[in-house]
Predict the structure of IRG1 decarboxylase.
Amino acid sequence: FPSQTVTGNFAKMIHGLSANQLTDQVIQRSKRMILDTLGVGLLGTSTEVCHKVAQYSKIYSSDLSSTIWGHLDFRLPPLYAAFVNGVAVHSMDFDDTWHPATHPSGAVLPALIALSEACPQKKKISGLDMLLAFNVGIEVQGRLLHFSREARNIPRRY
């Protein structure tokens, strides 16, 4: 249909996804990616860059808060918790990769965990919904990179 936009079709596809579309293989692979990301992120909490962004982020406060990984007594607004935890994941440069070049889990998982922690108790999401959201985030990155002219040129630059 010519009047529909690429963005509209993309949004419609994302909105139409449901947890029952996740295959056993996708679920198992996602769990492995999540465990890997958490492990790398916890290791990354000891890096200098992670300490710097955590210190910087302490100036922000909110009624909603999310955990900074590896620090049970340190909470920040979800946006900044996701930022600090994402930096922790990326700081070791051991996080998963994708082609064209990106580190998908380090961008997606910290945001999902921070948002899920900030949800009111009565609106907590299930593990299966978390896996769906994780896969949607990975899929969105992959599709955006697929259409990015700059991403296609990355391998030639190195």
About this structure: The chain is about 65% helix and 5% strand.
